[in-house]
Write the C-alpha cells for this entry.
Amino acid sequence: KSKESSLIENWKREYNINSIKNELIRHPNFVLVGRGTYALKEWNMQEGKAKDLIKEIIKEKGKITRSELWEIISTYRQIKKQTFIIYLNELKHKGVKEENGYLIYND
C-alpha cells in the first residue's frame, strides 16, 4: 500500500464531532468564537470569554459607548445582542459604570 492511498482512506473515514472539537480546542491556531464555532486566530479573533473581552475593551478604551463596544465585540465573537446586554449588566457590579452614555471601567 502506498502512503497516498492510505491518506485517501483516512479522509474517507467518518469522524465523531466531539473528536473534531477536541482537536480544535487543542490546536493553538484556533479559538472558540461562539457556541461550538471555531475560527482561526489569524482572522483577528481573540481568546477568552466574551464577558472578559468586553471588560478588557472598556478598560483599554477608557470610555466607550454601548454601540461602539457592540461593533468591536461582534468582530471578535459571535454573540447575541441580548447576551451582550446581560454581560454589561453583570459587569456593572465588577468595576464598569455608565456615565453620560459612556461605559467606563472604574477599578
Remarks:
- The first strand starts at residue 30 and ends at 34.
- The helical segments are 3-12, 17-26, 50-61, 66-76, 81-91.
